[in-house]
Amino acid sequence: MNALRRSAVALAAAAVVGAAAVPAVAADPSPSLPQGLYGSTDPTYDGVWRQSLALLAQDTTGVDPAPAAVEWLTGQQCDDGSFAPYRASTARDCDAKTPVDTNSTAAAVQALTALGGHDAAVRSALAWLRSVQNEDGGWGYSPGGASDANSTSVVIGALAAAGTDPVKAVKGGRTPYDALLSFALPCARGGAFAFQPDQDEKLTANTDATAAGVLGALGKGLVTGPGEAADGAAACAGADGDPRRAAANGAAYLAGAVAEDGYLKSALAGAEDQPDHGNTADAVVALAAQGGAERAAKPLAWLEKNAAGWAKRSGPAAWAQLILAAHAAGADPADFGGTDLVAALNATGPAPRATASDQRKDEDKEKKEDDSPFGTWWYVGVFAVVGVGIGFLLSNRKRQP
């Protein structure tokens, strides 16, 4: 999922990578940035993406987001329904030079659908996504760009989240699943997903695209709980055009990739392999969604021990990724290796209207009152009697000569 966020830079790198490269984030947004936006770093390439993830993560954990945060996101939408990564000025509508993209639009659809009350905005965004669907059934990052596994997957997630069956999104006689399966490698090459074919039309396994592809093949969005527990060890088998089999194959590839160390690796130019926290979080979501929480136990445990520092440096999208990973694997995001991910996310932007903790406190207070041997009405009655008594005394006092 960080891969989907990073697709702005991904086009140059031919891989969509993510939040790991974002600079450190202050507790409160910079005064120079728009009010309501999460994070204090330049939102040029990831504003809508990180805002959408933040709102999704808050909604998933029972947080009622700040109205300003929701208004910031809805205010970024173009009249045609699309979203760009960031529009510094929304006074004028988008034009041909506005860099709208499928990933930002699909993420916003998922966030606004989860929050509810934004049906018109969601319908408009979905209509735009359908209008830029490629003839192979998939989507590229930019309208008209070649389809890739990450973009196709995040749009499938948007369609599914909004209640539209992706199978019915047909273009050129092909569905989004047809496009997605075209990026799936055979079991002889591990069963992973490629981002897209290279110049020689060859597919190369990509863990980032595989994590996204597993969710897409399952018809899942960015938010998902543990799937049905799978029996036995993850293994690759022929897909035969079956999206769910392709998802299982992709999950088997990810399980093998994290088996030794518990995390996925990334290699920067001129540097040794190092842990990729964001991609590992995505893998947790994919593994849990496809084969149940137990499949994701090892990388989840690694994240619990090692990811807090990364998220603190990287900002709201990283905190949100960890929350969604915890949710997918059935862990507690409020106590994730000793870190309250929800509080950390909330601190990167406008204070929410209410948190799940606030609601629990209110419920506990009401419960205590209900459990009282006297109850609320007993106290009302006592005060009524006291009031009558005081009135009686005052009345008698006035009558005395």
From TrEMBL:
Residues 1-26 form the signal peptide. The chain crosses the membrane at residues 377-395. Residues 51-165 form the Prenyltransferase alpha-alpha toroid domain. Keywords: Membrane, Repeat, Signal, Transmembrane, Transmembrane helix. The keyword Lipid metabolism does not apply. Gene3D superfamilies: 1.50.10.20. This is Prenyltransferase alpha-alpha toroid domain-containing protein. Residues 358-371 have a biased composition (Basic and acidic residues). Residues 349-371 are annotated as: Disordered.
